[in-house]
Design brief:
36% of the residues lie in helices and 17% in strands. It is globular.
């Protein structure tokens, strides 16, 4: 009997590392594959016309900018809320932020501490909320400002599409790190995350779909021969 492949937090990092360092596949390509695949999954749902994307300052936020671009190209009305200082963006996430900005995608730059009525109105008026705040790397308790942010997203009467993992959910245990996004759908990359096998995790992940980023889930366990 075959078991469903799962990845822990460290294994996720190692898959990316091996893909970049040994295969020579640039991180920007992995992010593009992830974001495009997630956008295609969201576009396959009903009533995807107006979407608000909540982006953090790491690579999960970078995925969100890729998703925003592909949704815009599909004719959706997209708005991004960058809930972390622009100065924290780096590498591939910064590249995709700049691309989205130059394409004219509306990006509201606001710290998690400063969110107010306009943010809540944006959530309520959208068809879907994309959660691209925190990825699988989160391993400590959600900080207070983001607790309030996650609670506001959960309070909105709008379905949530989580990118890779619901923000605040521990990748390895499947338990909230104080608080977690409650998603309708989770588009997770490469393989099911170890914590998703926790029966209680379903209330946070909703329906989980695995999105390929162009490398096998067991890449870190494969002996690669290269020069």
């Amino acid at each position: 009997m075959n078991t469903i492949p799962t990845l822990t937090r460290d294994e996720v990092r190692n898959v990316d590392r091996v893909a970049i360092e040994q295969l020579g596949l640039p991180g920007i390509a992995l992010m593009e594959n992830a974001g495009r695949g997630a956008a295609e999954l969201l576009l396959s749902q009903n009533n995807v016309q107006r979407v608000v994307i909540c982006a953090g300052g790491g690579n999960n936020g970078g995925d969100g900018f890729v998703i925003a671009r592909h949704l815009m190209l599909a004719g959706c009305q997209v708005e991004v809320w960058l809930l972390s200082p622009v100065g924290k963006l780096a590498g591939d996430a910064l590249i995709n932020y700049r691309v989205a900005s130059r394409l004219g995608i509306p990006i509201q730059e606001c710290s998690a501490e400063e969110i107010g009525a306009s943010f809540e109105r944006s959530l309520e008026e959208s068809d879907w909320i994309v959660d691209a705040l925190c990825g699988t790397g989160l391993s400590s308790q959600v900080r207070p400002a983001f607790v309030s942010l996650i609670e506001r997203i959960n309070a909105a009467e709008t379905p949530v599409f989580a990118v890779d993992i619901p923000s605040g959910l521990d990748c390895d245990s499947g338990c909230p790190l104080g608080v977690s996004i409650k998603a309708e759908i989770t588009a997770t990359f490469v393989a099911i995350k170890a914590g998703f096998t926790n029966a209680d995790a379903h209330q946070w992940t909703g329906r989980v779909t695995v999105i390929s980023i162009g490398v096998p889930w067991d890449l870190e366990r494969t002996a690669l021969q290269y020069e």
